[in-house]
Amino acid sequence: MKTENLHKPIDKIKGVGPKVKEDLKKIGINSIQDALFLLPKKYENRTKITEIKDLISGDAFQFEGEILESKTIYPGRRSFLAKISDGTGILQIRLFYFSYAQAQAFKVGLTLRGYGVIRTNGSVTQVFHPSYKIFESSKRPMLDNTLTPIYSLGSSKLTQFRTRNIIKGCLQEIKEINLNEKEIDSIFKEKKISSLSIKDALLKIHAPSVSDDIIKINNYKDEAQERLIIEELATNLIGVKIASEKINKLKAKQMEILKKDLSSFVEKLPFKLTGAQLRTINDISNDLSKVKPMRRLVQGDVGSGKTVVAAVSMYISTKNNSQSVLLCPTEVLAEQHYKNFTEWFENTNIKIELLTGKMSAVIRKDIYQRLEEGKIDILIGTHAVFQDKVKMKNLGLVIVDEQQRFGVKQRFDLVKKSSNKIMPHQLFMTATPIPRTLAMTIFADLDVSKIDEMPPGRKPVETLVFSDKKKNEIVKRLENVCSKGNQVFWLCTMIEESENLDVQAAEEAKIWIKENTNKLNIGLVHSKLSKDERDKAIEKFRSGKIDVLVCTTVIEVGMDVPNASLIVIENAERLGLSQLHQLRGRVGRKADLDAFCVLIYQGEIGEIAKARLEAMKSTNDGFEISEIDMKLRGSGEILGTKQSGGVELKISDLSRDAHLIQKAEKLVDGLKNADQKMSKVLLDRWIGDKQNLIIAQ
Question: How far apart are CA 552 and CA 550, in angstroms?
């Protein structure tokens, strides 16, 4: 591929004007190469129409029929209903988020072609929020002649259709292979890793043939996908190696461990630390006392007490006149940590601050200034911490919570935040156990500590599995749970992977639970609420003013409510095993509390989904859960985007693709003897403008 072609600005492609350019920028696309490496998250088969009589509940299909009727439904929450028929049956189209213009487009007599996951409710066949087009029967559009790629577009206003057209335009730029690309391709062949060139891999991955196996492709088992996965994993291995070499040449602040002072702080905590926590604190203390920068990974199951270990580490940093940062993947988690830290550090002079993206510009400006002046000791925040305006006077320690949610490139992003020349110590925490293969490769630059002991008195959560036909019986037991002073999470997910539908399900569940219970206070938390609305609901739940909190997976991490003894998870078959285990960890967080997790599945479920639910029943051990999860994923489980580890990776999943690490190492080995430009090409492609943070200079 001609390098100069790939680095052309994206607005050189037909159809990319100023507004579209801005939308593309939001998802990290500035050049043609960026667009080519926006890789599909899944594929749909829109090359054929399935008759309505043959539609199967739970699967996705393309359908077509004449619009028989359409109407907006009141009272209650506004919704839209249309019915179509192809002569073999009737299909209902349901919309909950729609405009007036959308509703008016459904004119009786016109033809609708749509694609979505089919659901049945008794004898009614329906689809929620499908993608669709409406046309006159005489102007019937052609069917797609390739499998249709679906891209992750974040919060941008781009449509899938426009994105596909832009990428088609970018693919036209791949006309010639330059020397560096030929060299990389030859290493793939020489090492017997793949015979596919990068050009052919990209052409296939953005437009697979209808003859390609869609199941194999959606399982990331196609040769084109594996070619790119191996290349990305290899690039991350190169990045880790370069960064480690750079870091090992740098010096960190050698911190004095005042054991008497440290013991006094630990003794004043409202709970006793476990032996595993104390061992981990000892590991960290030893690292902090050295001039070599600490790079340690702490693995600990949900509820094992990683947060307090972070707090003790930051206490040591502050006592050595160094600032520290705790980076969290979500605002809910950041706010929970801030609340806990404020309590634990109450009788100290240590200044703690919270920084999130939703704070006002005035508040953020004040925090930036105090950080740069050294007037804030501990900063707890989300991605907002990465902003260029965040500069610190004397950053000594960086802690990343749920580190698997941050890519390799982000692990080094905070290094430049300090105004002094000292390299900060780094501590990474995860509730997702790292498989041995990955620990020895992608995370080879980290020392590892395990918190393999739960706080005293903590009982295992009992897990029960029921069909959705038992929902009425389950809801009747909520009053019994709450009458004992306990509280309940009721978690809603939909079969379709849609934030809007998750929100709709939660809103409907709140009404349904209220109608089927007496005197219970029902709260609601989901992503569409304003920060104030969400904060008020969470605080009411924490203080016991709400009995049942209906919510979406926004509570996966960070919600700590000691009196919560029951979590009910709808459509549990749709979630990954590690995610289910994380959610289960929201209950039973108080000593001697009997806690339960109820998993509700809908309809007939597959063998892998059954195995996941059985695993949840059989064990509470996160390390065992992780091993089972690896085996199930290895069987070709299709993972949702919410389950995928390492959000900064473009196509790889560090757990799913562990079996390809060996081939990635072969590629790295082949690149050792090649021109250094080769590694630069890969770093530029997969890590982009962040590579300057990790390349030794």
Answer: 7
pLDDT given for residue 77 in this prediction: 64
Structure tokens at 381: 């925040």
The one-letter amino acid at 521: N
**Greatest Cα pair distance in the chain:** 85
> Is the per-residue pLDDT at 206 higher than 50?
yes
279-303 pLDDT, tens digit per residue, is: 999 999 999 999 999 989 898 888 8
Which residues face 580 on adjacent strands? none
Tell me the C-alpha distance between 111 and 103, whole Å. Answer: 14
Alpha-carbon dihedral 272, 276, 282, 287, rounded to 10 degrees: -130
591-628 residues labelled b (16+ CB within 10 A) or e (exposed): eebebbbbbbbbeebeebbebbbebbeebbebeebbeb
For residue 557, name the pLDDT band (cuts at 50, 70, 90): low
Q: Burial, 307: exposed, middle or buried (Cβ in 10 Å; 0-12, 13-18, 19+)?
A: buried
Instruction: Look up the pTM and report it.
Output: 0.70
Joined together, the tokens standing for residue 302 give 């949900």
- Domains parsed from the chain with CATH numbers: 48-143 (2.40.50.140), 249-451 (3.40.50.300), 462-619 (3.40.50.300)
Give the span between the Cα atoms of 6 and 136, in whole angstroms. 40
Query: 695 versus 73: which is more confidently predicted?
Result: 73
Model pLDDT, residue 403: 61
Output the CA–CA distances (angstroms, integers) from residue 369 to 290, 399, 513, in the order listed.
30, 21, 48
